[in-house]
Amino acid sequence: MMNNIKVERLLVNYKTLEMFKRFKEYGNQELSMLEDLESNIIENDSESPFFGIYYGNALVARMSLYKVSAKYDQYFNPPQDYLELWKLEVLPDYQGRGYGSALVKFAKEFQLPIKTNPRINSQTFWEKMGFQKAKYNMERDLGENPLIWTPKGVAEQSVS
Amino acid sequence: MMNNIKVERLLVNYKTLEMFKRFKEYGNQELSMLEDLESNIIENDSESPFFGIYYGNALVARMSLYKVSAKYDQYFNPPQDYLELWKLEVLPDYQGRGYGSALVKFAKEFQLPIKTNPRINSQTFWEKMGFQKAKYNMERDLGENPLIWTPKGVAEQSVS
Q1: Which residue from B26, B87, B120 is facing A25, i.e. has the nearest CB?
Q2: Is B143 in the A-facing interface, judged by CB distances under 8 Å?
Q3: What phi and psi, each to the nearest 5 degrees, are found at residue A26?
Q4: Least confident among B48-52, B61-65, B140-144, B145-149
Q5: N or C: which end of chain B has fewer CB within 10 A?
Q6: Among A67, A71, A25, A75, which Cα is nearest to A49's?
Q7: What confidence tens digit (pLDDT) does each residue in B3-38 have?
Q8: Three-class secondary structure of residue B58 per DSSP
Q9: What's residue B16's pLDDT?
Q10: Reported ipTM
Q11: How distant is the Cα of A159 from the closest Cα of chain B, in angstroms?
């Protein structure tokens, strides 16, 4: 079944933004994209940091991915470019079909370390995907519960 | 009624950590405090970044506060020390009694700007407390929905 799942980069347009409203984690990022589109600060159909999965014409799963530059890396050793992953979400009616896993697998294919700060209670999913808790460091993590995944040869940065 | 509410700094000890388990946002931070206590990395009854309100002997509300140094300030103008506030939470049976407001008022009394990244759907509360949305900047905010409060004479930093 997983073979039929296609992950694609989402374009910023009114249709995408309308579909985003069905997701729980609709917030400042989406509102800001809408404002930028309305005021022509960004072009229609420009690339967004979101990737998603369609079921027919409906967007049913999505995540946001952003490459953080090595100079800001506080998580991995050696310090390097890594991916921040957020807003991984599958609409309730479409859960349990492997869409969440397909998105995470897609992110791993960039072969960069990944950091995410998932909602509490999704621990089991992330463990299954090979993520582990980063050692908590208050100055860096504040209220976050960061989880990390590392490709071969990459270790966690030690924190004081 | 607000006059009877006393906000106090919480000490790290087994009793506090046991009471933290009643809060929804129990995560890496609390687990890390417990490990540090068990392995004597931190002393019993040392100061924590948490402030809370007791009702009798029970901790019924809490928040975490941390002063971020001016050199890391990406939110305020002029750049300055500010407070990051997180895990503001009142136990369900004690909501609607002004405990949340009392905690935020306490934080404001330091007369430093405040930044928080609240859960979605708490918008009304934060507006009532004088907070406003920071202009979203993806590289800085990633998946966050930052809200800020500024004392007189402090403005928001403009972002590109």
Answers
A1: B120
A2: yes
A3: -95, 120
A4: B140-144
A5: C
A6: A67
A7: 589 999 999 999 999 999 999 999 999 999 999 999
A8: strand
A9: 96
A10: 0.84
A11: 13
Cα angle at B118 between B113 and B120, to 5 degrees?
A: 145
Contact flag A144-B28 (C-beta cutoff 8 Å):
yes
Chain A interface includes B1 (CB < 8 A): no
Q: Which of B32, B86, B145 is facing A28, going by the closest CB pair?
A: B145
Q: How far apart are CA B2 and CA B109, in angstroms?
A: 15
Determine contact: A146 vs chain B, CB below 8 A: yes
The answer to whether B28 contacts A136, with C-beta atoms less than 8 Å apart, is yes
Confidence grade of residue A88 (pLDDT, cut at 50, 70, 90)? very high
CATH 3.40.630.30 fits B7-156, yes or no: yes
In a 13 Å sphere around the CA of A133, the CA atoms on its Cβ side amount to 15
Are the Cβ atoms of A136 and B32 closer than 8 angstroms?
yes
Structure tokens belonging to residue B62: 């809490």
pLDDT for residue B4: 82
- Report long-range pairs for A147-151 (Cβ below 8 Å, ≥24 apart): A147/A115, A147/A116, A147/A117, A147/A118, A148/A75, A148/A76, A148/A113, A148/A114, A148/A115, A148/A116, A149/A108, A149/A113, A149/A114, A150/A76, A150/A113, A151/A108, A151/A111, A151/A112, A151/A113
For the segment A123-137, the average pLDDT, to the nearest whole number, is: 94
Query: Helices (H) and strands (E) in chain B — how many of each?
Result: 5, 9
Instruction: Tell me how close the Cα of B109 comes to any Cα of chain A, in angstroms.
Output: 21
Checking if the pLDDT of A120 tops 90, the result is: no
Contact state of B26 with A133 under an 8 Å Cβ cutoff = no
Element (H, E) at B160: none
Do the Cβ atoms of B52 and B62 come closer than 8 Å?
Answer: yes
